[in-house]
Design the sequence.
C-alpha cells in the first residue's frame, strides 16, 4: 500500500462497538486509544496483559478470554488486530474485509485496510501522522509538530467564532527566549495583542497579518494610555469574542498591575488567565552576573519602585534591595538608604537594557552611584541592585579599590574554559 492510496479522515466512534483481537501491550495501547474516543471495546484473546485486565476489571471494556472466531466481527464498526500471530491477524482482516468493516492489521501494514496514525493532542487540536508505514518516523514527526504548536512556532489560533478571553502574559525582560512556553502558545492563538513597551517586542513581528496589536506602552512620567483605559480595552475586546493577550514585560504580578487587570476582567465576566513571566527584578541583574541572593552575602531581597518605600526595607548590605523604575529618583533613594544606616561603601549595580545588545552595566557604591549614573547618562529601562551581591558580578572591580566603577561594554556571552592539570 502506497501513501498515495491513503485517504486521511477521522472516525467518530463514540458509543459504537469495536473489536480488538490480541491481549499484549500493543492491544492494550490500541484499546486505551479507542476507549479515549468513547468506543465500546471488546477484546478477544486467550490471555490478556495486566493493563488490559485492569481495564476489564474496572468495567471499561469487555474481555473474552478465548481464541478468535469469525463471528466476532459481526456488528462491529471497527477492528484492530494485535495478536502477534500473522496468520490469525490475516484471518481477522479477511473476515472484516468480507463484511466491509475497516480493520487495522498490525502484522502487515501493506495489506492493512486502515492504518493507525501517531497521535498527539494540543489544546483542542488532534494531530495524526502517517509516515509510509514507519511508526517511529511517524512518532518523531508527530512530536515535532506538537512541540512547534506548544511553543507557538506553528499557529494554533482559532479561525471560527469563539468565546472571548484574556491572557495576562509575562514576557520576561525583553529577550524573546525568556517567555514561557505557555505564553508563547497563547500569543500564537491571539486575535488581539495589547502590548507593553518592555515586553519581547520581536515576537510581534511573527504574528499573523490580521492580528491586531494595540500599543499601550508607558514610559516614566508618560502614560499615554491610562490604566483604566487599558482595563476597558481588555474587556471590550474579549466581549467582542476575541482572544486577547496582554503582553507585558517581566511578570504581570510583580509591579505589573496584573492583579488590577485580572480583577477588572472577572468583574465583567471575562475569562482571564495569568501566565507568570521572568521578572526583571531577578533576571536583569542575572544578565550582569549579579544574584539577588548569594551564600555568605545575602539571604533575602526586597523589590521596590521608589525611595518612599525604602524606609521599610532592612538597611543592611547583606539584604539586597532591587529598585525598579528608579533611575529618576536614584539620588533620593541612595540618600534615604544612607540615612537609614546603610554604609556609603555598599556596592550598587545598575543594569540598563538587560539581555539586549546595548546592555550596559554601571557599578559603584551608595555614595558614588548617583554621580556616576548622571555622568554616564544612565536611563530607563534599568534595574538597580544595592547590596554585597554586586561584588559577585564579573563587571565589579577588584575589591572596589579603583576610582572608576563603570563599564559601558555590552554583556557578551562568556566562553567556557577547560582547565587542565
Sequence:
Amino acid at each position: 500500500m502506497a501513501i498515495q492510496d491513503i485517504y486521511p479522515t477521522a472516525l467518530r466512534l463514540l458509543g459504537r462497538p469495536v473489536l480488538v483481537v490480541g491481549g499484549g501491550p500493543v492491544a492494550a495501547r490500541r484499546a486505551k486509544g479507542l476507549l479515549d474516543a468513547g468506543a465500546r471495546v471488546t477484546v478477544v484473546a486467550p490471555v490478556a496483559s495486566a493493563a488490559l485486565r485492569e481495564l476489564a476489571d474496572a468495567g471499561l471494556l469487555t474481555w473474552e478470554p478465548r481464541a478468535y472466531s469469525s463471528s466476532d466481527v459481526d456488528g462491529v464498526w471497527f477492528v484492530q488486530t494485535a495478536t502477534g500471530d500473522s496468520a490469525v491477524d490475516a484471518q481477522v482482516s479477511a473476515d472484516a474485509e468480507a463484511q466491509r468493516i475497516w480493520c487495522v492489521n498490525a502484522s502487515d501494514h501493506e495489506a492493512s485496510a486502515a492504518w493507525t496514525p501517531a497521535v498527539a493532542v494540543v489544546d483542542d487540536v488532534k494531530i495524526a501522522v502517517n509516515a509510509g508505514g514507519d511508526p517511529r518516523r511517524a512518532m518523531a514527526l508527530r512530536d515535532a509538530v506538537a512541540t512547534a504548536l506548544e511553543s507557538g512556532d506553528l499557529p494554533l489560533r482559532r479561525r471560527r467564532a469563539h468565546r472571548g478571553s484574556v491572557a495576562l502574559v509575562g514576557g520576561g525582560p525583553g529577550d524573546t527566549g525568556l517567555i514561557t512556553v505557555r505564553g508563547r502558545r497563547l500569543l500564537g492563538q491571539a486575535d488581539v495583542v495589547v502590548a507593553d513597551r518592555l515586553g519581547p517586542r520581536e515576537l510581534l513581528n511573527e504574528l499573523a497579518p490580521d492580528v491586531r496589536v494595540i500599543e499601550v506602552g508607558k514610559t516614566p512620567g508618560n502614560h499615554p494610555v491610562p490604566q483604566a483605559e487599558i482595563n476597558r480595552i481588555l474587556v471590550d475586546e474579549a466581549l467582542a469574542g476575541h482572544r486577547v493577550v496582554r503582553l507585558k514585560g517581566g511578570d504581570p504580578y510583580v509591579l505589573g498591575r496584573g492583579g488590577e487587570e485580572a480583577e477588572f476582567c472577572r468583574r465583567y465576566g471575562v475569562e482571564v488567565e495569568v501566565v507568570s513571566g521572568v521578572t526583571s527584578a531577578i533576571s536583569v541583574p542575572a544578565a550582569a552576573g549579579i544574584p539577588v541572593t548569594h551564600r555568605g552575602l545575602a539571604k533575602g531581597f526586597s523589590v521596590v519602585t521608589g525611595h518612599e518605600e525604602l524606609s521599610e526595607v532592612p538597611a543592611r548590605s547583606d539584604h539586597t534591595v532591587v529598585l525598579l523604575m528608579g533611575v529618576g529618583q536614584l539620588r533620593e533613594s541612595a540618600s534615604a538608604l544612607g540615612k537609614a544606616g546603610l554604609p556609603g561603601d555598599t556596592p550598587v549595580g545598575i543594569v540598563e537594557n538587560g539581555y539586549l545588545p546595548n546592555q550596559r552595566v554601571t557599578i559603584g557604591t551608595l555614595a558614588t552611584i548617583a554621580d556616576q549614573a548622571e555622568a554616564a547618562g544612565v536611563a530607563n529601562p534599568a534595574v538597580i541592585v544595592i547590596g554585597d551581591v554586586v561584588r559577585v558580578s564579573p563587571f565589579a572591580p577588584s575589591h572596589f579599590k579603583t576610582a572608576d566603577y563603570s563599564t559601558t561594554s555590552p554583556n557578551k556571552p562568556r566562553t567556557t574554559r577547560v582547565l587542565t592539570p
